[in-house]
Design goal:
CATH class: Alpha Beta
Helix content: 40-55%
Number of helices: 11
Bound molecules: 2-phosphoglycolic acid
Largest sheet: 8 strands, parallel, barrel
Distance between the termini: 20 Å
Shape: globular
Radius of gyration: 17 Å
Number of strands: 8
Strand order of the largest sheet: 1-2-3-4-5-6-7-8
CATH architecture: Alpha-Beta Barrel
Structural class: alpha/beta
Mean pLDDT: 96
Order of helices and strands: EHEHEHEHHEHHEHHEHEH
Low-confidence stretches: none
Number of domains: 1
Strand content: 15-25%
CATH superfamily: Aldolase class I
C-alpha cells in the first residue's frame, strides 16, 4: 500500500464555485503527465459533484473537507459518509484544526466521524491531529499527539484493507508560510507511529495506516519532507490554489 505518496489539496473555503471548477479544469489539463503520486482534491461541499465530473477519466481523486457521523436523519446542514461516497469521494478530512477552532469540533466528535467513515466502504478518513504553539513551546507536544490519537481512534476496529490516514498538522504552521523543520516532522511522525503501534499493533499500522504532514508545504520546502521516514504524503493548502505552483510542487515531489 505504501509506495506511492499521497498529496491532498485542501481548498478550504478559499475559492468561489466558478474558481473551483476553473482550477479543476486547469489541473486536469496540466497534470496529464503526472505519475508516481496519488493526488486528491478537497473542494467545498457544493462543488464536489461538478469537480468529480471534471476529474472523470483522470487518476485524481475526490476528497471532502468534513463529514457528519450519522447516515440519514434530522441533522440540518450535515452530510453523511454514504452521501460522500455517492458523490464520488474516496477521502474525507476529519477534524481539521480550523473546524476545531471555528466549529468547536472536539475529539469525541472526530472519533464518531472516523468510526462512521470506516463503516462505509471505499471512503478513507484523513484524521487531523497536531499541537498548538503553546503546547509546543511548553514541550507538551508528544503527550498532545498521544492524547489526540487516543481520543480520535481508540476502540476502532480496523479490518481487511481499510485505510486510515493520520495528518499531522502543527496548528501554528498552517497558513503561516513557514513549515516546521523536516526533522521535527520526522520526530512527531515517530511519536504518532509508536502510539498507533501501541493501540493497533505494528502489522495493522504498517498495512492500514498512512501518516502525512500538513502546514505551509510549498515548492521550496517539499523536497525536505518527501524522503522522510514515516511520511506517506502531504496535506497542502495554499500551494494547491494555483495550477502552476501546484504542478511545480508535484514535480518536486515526484522527481
Ligand atoms: P497550508 O494549509 O498548506 O495553507 O498551511 C494546510 C492545511 O490546512 O491543511
Amino acid at each position: 500500500m505504501k509506495e506511492e505518496k499521497i498529496i491532498i489539496a485542501n481548498w478550504k473555503m478559499k475559492l468561489s464555485l466558478a474558481e473551483t471548477i476553473n482550477l479543476t479544469k486547469k489541473i486536469k489539463t496540466k497534470f496529464k503527465d503526472v505519475s508516481g503520486v496519488e493526488i486528491a482534491i478537497a473542494p467545498n461541499f457544493i462543488s464536489l459533484l461538478e469537480v468529480g465530473a471534471v476529474l472523470k477519466g483522470t487518476n485524481i481523486k475526490l476528497c471532502a473537507q468534513d463529514v457528519f457521523w450519522e447516515d440519514l436523519g434530522a441533522y440540518t446542514g450535515e452530510v453523511s459518509p454514504s452521501m460522500l461516497v455517492e458523490a464520488g469521494c474516496q477521502y474525507v478530512i476529519i477534524g481539521h484544526s480550523e473546524r476545531r477552532k471555528f466549529m468547536m469540533e472536539n475529539y469525541e466528535m472526530i472519533h464518531r466521524e472516523a468510526k462512521a467513515v470506516l463503516g462505509v466502504e471505499n471512503l478513507t478518513p484523513v484524521v487531523c491531529i497536531g499541537e498548538n504553539w503553546d503546547e509546543r513551546k511548553t514541550d507538551r507536544r508528544d503527550f498532545v499527539l498521544y492524547d489526540q490519537l487516543q481520543q480520535a481512534l481508540s476502540g476502532l476496529d480496523i479490518m481487511g484493507n481499510q485505510e486510515i490516514i493520520v495528518a499531522y498538522e502543527p496548528i501554528w504552521a498552517i497558513g503561516s508560510g513557514t513549515a516546521i523543520e523536516p526533522t521535527e516532522a520526522e520526530y512527531a511522525h515517530k511519536i504518532i507511529k509508536l502510539t498507533l503501534n501501541d493501540m493497533f499493533g505494528m502489522k495493522i499500522v504498517n498495512n492500514n495506516f498512512k501518516i502525512i504532514y500538513g502546514g505551509s508545504i510549498n515548492t521550496k520546502n517539499a523536497k525536505g519532507f518527501i524522503d522522510l521516514d514515516n511520511l506517506d504524503g502531504m496535506l497542502v493548502g495554499g500551494a494547491s490554489l494555483d495550477v502552476d505552483e501546484f504542478y511545480k510542487l508535484i514535480k518536486v515531489i515526484t522527481k
